[in-house]
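Entry 14. Structure prediction run on the chain below.
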Amino acid sequence: MMGLFSWKKDKSSQEITLLGVKGQIATMKCLLMAGIKEISLKTTLATPETKIDHINSYQYIDGTQKVPTLTQGDFSVSGARAILTYLDVRGKGTSLIPKKARTLGLQNYWVDVCYQALAPATEAMIHGNMTVEDKIALERVLSSLNKILADNQFIVGQLSFADPHAAAYIYVLKCGGYDISQHPNIEKWITRLEEKMSGPLNIEYLPMQTGSSNSQVA
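Output returned:
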């Protein structure tokens, strides 16, 4: 039985499109992974009434339009985690999934940190209601990340799924005016990540409408 992403390579000539939302972190994660894996995406912005994928979209199996959604030929999938996996398999170079158990565990740990710690604090900043507790939680994660990146080129050492996941939040925080200058290793890491990409990030998809439903993070 063929796996979900195991179709033949002759599909590679088909255009890959991404339906996304300006300023949505899930969309940014997809753009980052596409750049790292040297995949050209035709990205379009969703209409305001399109439902937003706040977390993973694994429940979105009914085929209705959600964001972000990737389409290639007759195949379509929604949700950042599913799309990142698809792009990793379809793209150039080796997979970003670590082969060593310890490194894989660290990758998954940092992906969880993104969803459980970075996402709430970033959303609070986007909507202008960041509390002292939110900032403390955010700074705790940023400080830990900065310390790790003092010794590692990428979050778990090698380039992994943890990098596009975390980098998307950093981009949105910076575009939202959050000062990360006290974490220089994070800024150097972003530069290294950009050097791995096939082209510049689609910055026009970064600005967000503060307070709108489409500025939600994922």
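Residues 140 and 178 are 14 Å apart (CA to CA).
Filed with the rest of this week's runs.
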